[in-house]
Amino acid sequence: MTTVTLNGTRGSGPAPMTGQQQETLDNKIQKAAEQIAAEGKAGFYHHLEAYAMADVINLIDRKETEELYQQLKANIPVYGGNTTSYTIKTDNVTLVVDAGTGLRSEGAPASSEPIHIALTHTHRDHLDGFDIWGPIYFAPITIYGRRNNGKYLEETLHDLFSDDKWPVDPFTVNPNTKIKEIDDEGIIEIGDLKVEYKHSDKSFHPLHGITSYKITTPENAKIVIMTDIELNGKSDKELASLEAFAHDADMLLIDAQYTPEEYAMKKGQGHTTYDVAVEFARKAGVKNTILTHHDPTHDDFDIWKKEQLANQYLEKIGRPEDMTMACAYDGMRVDL
Ligand SMILES: [Zn+2]
Ligand SMILES: [Zn+2]
Predict the structure, then answer these.
(1) How do residues 301-332 score in pLDDT, each as one tens digit?
(2) Lower CB density within 10 Å: C or N end of the chain?
(3) Which residues are within 8 A (CB) of 113 and not within 5 positions of it... i.e. 6 or more apart?
(4) Residue 44 Cα, ligand 1 centroid: separation in angstroms?
């Protein structure tokens, strides 16, 4: 079995929950649990559904309420604030795409097989997890990524840890790190995963463009990762090769950082609106679409709302029978 875990799903910068937000959330969960217990209901899965139910509170049996509260608290998918990092794990290999702060939840390699890390690009929100991730200092790690306008990937990675920025350079102290440059397009076999990659130019993401990945699992499932990509305003011709790349994916992780209203102010910053992401996924015939790279200014409610609006939009343009759509959250896990 192959498992995909989304360790970090924020874009542009981390967005940790403040103490006040946590308190508000705790209160809302408490109220929702009381409400559910009062109505004898169970099984809703999202704390934001609970928000809607929490208007009228009927206090009931304390013990039952407390049990439900604990249960809810353990299961609420708060979206989280870590930046981009996804893990694809098969029985014999671990491939991580991007090294944002979500990387810190990835453990050390369990065998002598290295952890493979493929980079979409070298913006900070996709690299900031390296310094806070223990295994980078000792474990066997192989990193893949593209050279930026003549600057070697190795140089970019060392720059992150120059002595004015960080006390130790893991790429110098760890003799088990390998850095492998990839071209604009190609295929690499990593363990039992087939990894195809495709570069889109700077009109899709400033200033060096972006690499998208298509990973085929041993079960023949296709996972496509297209983050930090601006699909808005592109012609059918420009989108055709990307649609072909994502065609029939079982799972597409796609940038949907903005609402159409926000995009008016963010044009050219290299990110897509949820409606354009929905159109793209539908046209490419994707089964399970996960919207990701959430804006750091968005709170849980904004992201939840984006998920509702994306689904409404998909209904409007015609949802294929087997197509699902959800917003990514830190810790989300999909078995393929
Ligand atoms: Zn980013
Ligand atoms: Zn970026």
Answers:
(1) 889 889 999 999 999 999 999 999 999 999 88
(2) N
(3) 92, 93, 94, 140, 191
(4) 32
